[in-house]
Amino acid sequence: MPTETPEGPGPEAPGPALREPSLDEQIAAYQREFGDLDPQVEKVVSALGRLNRRMNVAYGRQVADLGISSAEWEVLKTLVLAGSPYRMGPGELAKRLGLTPAAMTHRIDRMAAEGLVTRDRDENNRVRVIVELTDEGRTKWQQAMRMATDFEEDLLRDLSADERGVLGELLIRVLRRVEHAQPDAGGRLTDLD
C-alpha cells in the first residue's frame, strides 16, 4: 500500500519476497492436482530442474563479472572444445550451439567487436569464413573456468568422492536416456539473442 506524505501518495512499500515452494510442497500440489504422479520421480526431476536453473544464474553472474555474456561464453567454450588452433566456420558453430545462422552472425559480430574472436576469410577457400579465438577470448575462457571450478567444488563439497562418482554415473545414465529419446535436443527451440 502506498504511504501518505504531505505531497501525496508515496512509493509502494516493499512487500515480502515471493517464496518458491519447497520441493515437498510442489510435489504435494502436483499430487493434489494430478493423482497419477510418482513422487520419487517428480522429486528427482524437479530437483534437477531447480539445480540447473540456479547453476545457470550463478554461471551467468560469473561471466558477467568478466564482461561477457552467457551466449558469448558458449561460443568461447565451443571454440576451445574444437582444439587448437580454436577455429570453426560460423555454420558449424551455429549447428553446435543450436542457433540460426542469423543469430550466430549477430553473436560473432558482437564478439569480434569485443576482441574475443576474429573472423577472416579462409586462405584456401575465399568463400569460407573462419571464426578464431583470440588471446583475449582464451583468457576470458580461462578466467570463467577458474570461477566455475571454484563454484562447482563448493557445490559438491558435502559429497564424498564416492558419492560424487555415484551421482555422476547416475546422472549420465539419465542423460543417455534423454539423448536417445531426443537426439536433436542439444540446441534450443528458439534463439536467445
Please give a quick description of this structure:
The protein has 193 residues and is an alpha+beta fold.
| Tally of helical segments | 7
The count of β-strands is 5
- Proportion of beta-strand residues: 5-15%
Strand order of the biggest β-sheet: 3-5-4
Q: What's the average pLDDT? A: 86
Distance N to C terminus = 38 Å
Estimated helix fraction: 55-70%
Principal-axes geometry comes out as elongated
Taken in chain order, the helices and strands follow as EEHHHEHHEEHH
Computed structural class: alpha+beta
Give the biggest sheet: 3 strands, antiparallel
Uncertain spans: 1-10
What does this structure look like?
The protein is an alpha+beta fold. It contains 7 helices and 5 strands; from the N terminus they run E-E-H-H-H-E-H-H-E-E-H-H. It has helices at residues 23-33, 39-65, 70-82, 90-97, 101-113, 135-155, 161-181, and strands spanning 2-5, 8-12, 87-88, 117-122, 125-133. The strands form 2 sheets. It has a 3-stranded antiparallel beta sheet with strand order 3-5-4. Strands 1-2 form a two-stranded antiparallel ribbon. A hairpin with a 2-residue loop joins strand 4 (117-122) and strand 5 (125-133). The longest helix has 27 residues, at 39-65. The protein is elongated and about 60 Å long. The model is unreliable at 1-10 (pLDDT under 50).
